[in-house]
Amino acid sequence: MRLYHLLVAFPIVSGFQLPFQLPFFNQPITQEPLPPVPSRRIAIIGAGAGGSSAAFWLGKAQERFGLDVEVDIYEKNTYVGGRSTVVYPYENTSLPPVELGASIFVKANKNMWRAVDEFNLTRRDFREDSSGMGIWNGESLVFTAMGGWWGIWDSVKILLRYGFHSPRKTQQFVDKMIGKFLTLYSVETPKWDNITHLSSALEWTELLTQSTSDYLASEGVSNQFIYELVEASTRVNYGQNADGMHALAGAVSLAPTGASAVEGGNFQVFEQFLNHSKANVYLETLVKSISRSASGQWQITSDRGSETYMAVILAAPWHSTNIELPADISSRIPAQPYVHLHVTLLSTTLPSVPAQSFSLPASTKIPAMLLTTFDGARNGGTRPEFNSLSYHGAIREGEFVVKIFSESRIEDAWLSKMFEGQVGWVHRKEWDAYPVLPPTTTFPDVKLAPGFYYVNAFEPFISTMETETLASRNVVDLLLKEELQSGICGSAELSGEAVEDYVYGWDC
Ligand SMILES: Cc1cc2nc3c(=O)[nH]c(=O)nc-3n(C[C@H](O)[C@H](O)[C@H](O)COP(=O)(O)OP(=O)(O)OC[C@H]3O[C@@H](n4cnc5c(N)ncnc54)[C@H](O)[C@@H]3O)c2cc1C
C-alpha cells in the first residue's frame, strides 16, 4: 500500500482479431464480433461497494471493446454507498463529515487505492493522534501504549508485556495472508465460482477451518497476546472474539497497517464508480422479487414495475433484502447471521474520557483509542459495555468527535456519566454490519443460476469494501464469459510486466 502506481494505460488491442485465453478460463475467448443483441440488459441490485464496482467493471468492458449491454442498478436507499456512508455533526454540512460505517482501507486494497487516485479524490492517513491506545477488559486497562494502534507493534511496551515470539509470529501470519491476497490483482488471478475452491487455491483452508485463537495458539502465540492485542483487533473490526471467528478474518483484522480513508467520505469512491460507468442508476427503488421468465430471462419486480434482463447481479446480503426468489435459488443461499452493531457518534468538549468514568485513579490517562478484550468476561468478570470507543479528531475548536461500537444501545445516561455531561451532538445507527464468521468451509454459491450471480457470497470469507470490489470483478468476469463469451479485459493483451503496480481489471 505504499507506492503510487504509475498510471500507464496498457495498450488495448483494438478489434477482435487475435485468439487469446484468459488465465484460468478453460475455453479460449472467441474473437468474433459480438452479435448485435439489443436486449442485452443486466440488472445490478445494490449500490454499495459491490454493486457500484460491478457497474464500473461492466463499464470498463463497454469502454474497452464496445460491449453492447445496458446496465440498470437498483438501490433502495436515497444514497450510493450502502454500509459506507457519512453523517455531519449536528446535520451541519459545514462541519467535517464522520464515517458512520466502513472507515478504513489499506494499501494492499489495490482497487480502493487505485480508485482514489484515478478519481482525483484525496486520501488521508487514518492515524490516531499521539494520545495512544488502550485495551479495556470491562474492569481495568490491561494494556496502554502511546502512538496509537499502528505504531505500537515494535514498541518496547509490547516486547516487555508479550515478549518477542508472539508479536513476530502474528506479524508473519498477517504478512503471509497479504502476500497471497495480492495475487488477486495479478494477471494470474484465480477466477472462481466457488469460494471453497478459491480458498484452497490461496492455501487458506487451514485459516478458514480454525478459530483465530486456535490457529495462533498452534503457532505458539501466547494466550495473553491472543486475548489482548489480537482480540482487541477482532472486536473493533468485526465485533467478534478471537475464539469465535475464523483465522482468515483474524488476519484481515490485524492487517490495517497504514490505514487510510477518503477525505470527505469513502462513499465517494462508489459514487465515482457509478459516474465512470454507463449504468442507469435508480435510487429509492426497492427490488421486491426476481423470477425467471418463460424465455429464460430474468424478471425483476421493483418500485419501477417489471423489467426483463439477460443477467442479474445481486450485490447485497440476500437475507436482508426481502427479495423474493424462486425456491430452487433461495435454497442455495445458506442462512447467514450478521453482527448487529450499534454505532454511537457524539461530540464532546472533553479531550479525553476522565479516568473516574472508568472508576480508575484520577492520575490515569485514558487513551484516545480504547479497544476491548472479552477475556475478563470469559473468566467471570464484567463484560465491556462497548467494543471500541475512540476519539476521531476535532469537529471545531475545542469540540471532539467520538465513535463507539457496541453490541447493545448506548443510552444517554451512560454517555452523560462517561463524559461528565459534556455531550453535544449524538447520532445512533444500528447496522447488520458484517457476517458472523465462525470457522467454516461452506459458502453460498457465487453463481446462483445461469445468468444470476451473487457478489455477497464473498462476505463470509472476507467482508470489507475492497473485497466486495474484488468479488464484483470476479462476478462480472464470469458473467461476461458465460453470457457473452468475453471478459472485463476483452481483447486487451494480458501482461502484468509492462505496468508498474499492475492491477487486474484496471491495467489490462
Ligand atoms: C460500522 C461498520 C464499520 C465497517 N468498517 C469497515 C472498514 O473500516 N473497512 C472496510 O473495508 N469495511 C468495513 N465495513 C464493512 C463494509 O462496510 C462492507 O463490507 C461493504 O461496504 C459491503 O458492501 P456491499 O456493497 O457488499 O453491501 P452494502 O454496502 O450493504 O450494499 C448493499 C446495498 O443494497 C441495497 N439493497 C438492499 N436490499 C435492496 C433491495 N431489495 N432493493 C434495492 N436495493 C437494496 C442496500 O440499500 C445497500 O445500499 C464496516 C461496516 C460497518 C457497518
From TrEMBL:
Keyword annotations: FAD, Flavoprotein, Glycoprotein, Lyase, Oxidoreductase, Signal
Cofactor: FAD
GO MF annotation, one: lyase activity
Top-rank lineage group of the source organism: Eukaryota
One of the GO BP terms on file: prenylated protein catabolic process
Keyword Zinc-finger appears in the UniProt entry: no
Pfam family of the protein (one): NAD_binding_8
N-terminal signal peptide: 1-15
Coiled coil: none
Limits of the Prenylcysteine lyase domain: 150-481
Family annotation (Gene3D superfamilies): FAD/NAD(P)-binding domain
Similarity-based family: Belongs to the prenylcysteine oxidase family.
Name the record gives this protein: Prenylcysteine lyase-domain-containing protein
Organism this protein belongs to: Roridomyces roridus
